[in-house]
Amino acid sequence: MFLLRLIIPDRPGSLGVVATALGEVDADIHAIEIVEHRRENGTAVDDIVVDLPPGVLPDRLVSACNGVPDVEVIWFSRYGAGGGLHMDLEAVEQMTSAPADAIDILVEQSPAVLHADWAALLDGTGSEVKVALETSATPEFGDMAGAWLPLEKATTLQAPDHKGLSESVLVAAPLDSDRRVLVIGRRGGPEFLGSEVARLSYLASLAVTIRATA
User: Where would I find the ACT domain in this sequence (predicted)?
Assistant: First the structure.
C-alpha cells in the first residue's frame, strides 16, 4: 500500500485523468482525500492511497502521475495496509452514535485509524498532568506526561529519551483544551505523514464538536 500526495489542477476531470494514469500501471485506488483547495492558483492537494500487484515497481506510480500535465507529486511513501479513510468514517459514525463519549471513542479508535500501536489522553487541566485514558500497549509516561503541554495544534512530537517512549514515533493533537492532548505512538515507525497529522487534527476537532451536541 502506498500514499501519494499530489498537486493537481482544481478543475473537473483532473482527478479522473490521474486515476486513469494510475490504472495504466495496474494501481488499485483504495481512497482519495482532498486535503486542500488552493484557490489563489487554481490547484488542489489530494492524497491517494493505492495498492500495487506483485512485481510492479513503486516508482511507476510516481512516473504515471508525473506524466499527467500540470500534476506534481509532492511526496510518496509506503502506507499502512487498508488505507485510512474508511477507518476515519467508522470512527465518526461511532462518535455520532454516542456524542457524550465522542472524545473517549476517538482515543480508543485512533490507533486503528492511524495504524498505530497505542494512544493516550493527557489531562493537564488540574494541578498535575495525568493520563486520563489510554489504550492497551501504552507505555508508562512517568514525568514525561506533561512534556508537550500546552499544545496548540496537531503536530508530530520528538520522542524523549524515556523507556517505552524513545522507540516510538509520536503525533499529538489538542482536544477541548490545549492542556488536554491526545498522543498517539507507533513503535519503530514509520514516521507520521503530513496527511495523517491533518486527519488527526480534523478528527480531534470533530470529536469536540460532536461532544458539544450531547
Answer: 3-76
